[in-house]
Amino acid sequence: MEGTRRQSTTNITKPTHKLIDQDETSTVTGPKPSDALPLPLYITNALFFTVFFSVVYFLLTRWREKIRNSTPLHLVTLSDIVAIFAFIASFIYMLGFFGIDFVQSLILRPSPDVWAAEDDGEDEVDLLKEDARIVPCGQALDSTAPPPPQKIAVVPSHHLKPKVVDEIPFPTTLNEEDEEIINSVVAGKTPSYSLESKLDDCKRAAAIRREALQRITSKSLSGLPLEGFDYESILGQCCEMPIGYVQIPVGIAGPLLLDGKEYSVPMATTEGCLVASTNRGCKAIRICGGAASVLLRDAMTRAPVVRFGTAKRAAQLKFYLEDPANFEVVSTVFNKSSRFGRLQSIKCALAGKNLYMRFSCSTGDAMGMNMVSKGVQNVLDFLQNDFPDMDVLGISGNYCSDKKPSAVNWIEGRGKSVVCEAVIKGDVVRNVLKTSVEALVELNMLKNLTGSAMAGALGGFNAQASNIVSAIYIATGQDPAQNVESSHCITMMEPLNGGEDLHVSVTMPSIEVGTVGGGTQLASQSACLNLLGVKGASKETPGANARLLASIVAGSVLAAELSLMSAIASGQLVNSHMKYNRSNKDVSKVAS
Question: Which pLDDT band holds residue 411 (cuts at 50, 70, 90)?
Fold first, then answer.
């Protein structure tokens, strides 16, 4: 069986190829209508455009003079006759200007028999090879090393030079029509972004776009999977112009015992030792009775910026919005945008005659950026009635603040604000974490607090909160870019019971997560949410699933902080990374 597979793979990738030079291109691709023009197509187009609009202007001017002078319109001079003939000629040309390639495709389009004849003569230059893999991506594959890549020729378009690219096994069979579309994309006649709408087949569009990209760039995408993904699920909401998907391994840390329940935490990462370290922290917490979490706030924010003619006028709107007597009116307008979006507060900041208004609202189980943005837009439209001189410069003025480290998020919070704590027994610190309570407390003070202050950190008073947040975000379909503010965290470690035990906590004011919308609907990410028991919207209490996910994120950060700090305190950080995150090969003995 294995030998058969190797033989079939060899037979697929074995064909020899020859380069086709520029002189042979016209023979292969056939003549174009534009080849009959004495000048380049763009110069001809410019000439006829100029003639058309010039004669139109001339004729209109002449007719206007005749009307003013009461001269009969049918009396024409030689210049009028020449202008009329030039108008007719240029008009006829312009009728076919935008359709010259379209007319070519209809009139001069080769028949299927012609395509078949060309294919028979060009078997050795066939660019599309069936994928040699016989199992889906992610399953166990034959570990036999693949044959070295062959070099094949790409038939260039009319304006491109021939290129040589690596041979790329293509998993999807492309027919003659696909080949025509690929050539059209390569030639720049069909926009790549329009393939989905034109073909009404997302997977086929991705395959064609991928092949066109390889021919244009002469770069192989053989290592980027195409099969095994639902491209319909991302259309119009997750990713544009897809050509495949990136595989990221997902590990499991835990169980994490949090608020009396155990959770197996999925982490998508390529950093060795990260899952193992978090898992050790989960073990220490579980042995000691688990961790407890408290949700302090739950509010997504959006802060538009508006401008007035004077600072005094801007201050009047600030006073209006911050007046409790007006909050009910404004919140009613805001809440019309969604069943779940409920305005909680408005905080304003003035910079000269520019006003920044930070709206905070609950968003149910959604992360809520779109929800709060719609509500803010409703309020801005409403305010235009009483403040017609208000100039809205942007729906977001960076006072929100989204995907940027900021003091306002660190102090006021954004998304879910969570505190998570645990008490670790002294014997667990010594036997599981391999260090001491005293060493952990001292290291936390000098590293996470003093060291971060020396570095001028903003919300970064921790050891590796960003590692955990990013890994869980990618696994569960969150916005990875929001790791910036979601990783704001301060880790505290204090001795208890006369220094025998350790109290450890993490305070995270800006965890931005959701369990509906965005990437949470994709199959893999949805499975990870289901593993945690927070898939979709909560049927009992709106927002409960998203809040629980935020608590799990904080609990996982707590476990990872505990383990990493212990590794540093005991001097085991380098050894553990050499074991799990680095090759043990002696590079000094490897031949250059």
Answer: very high
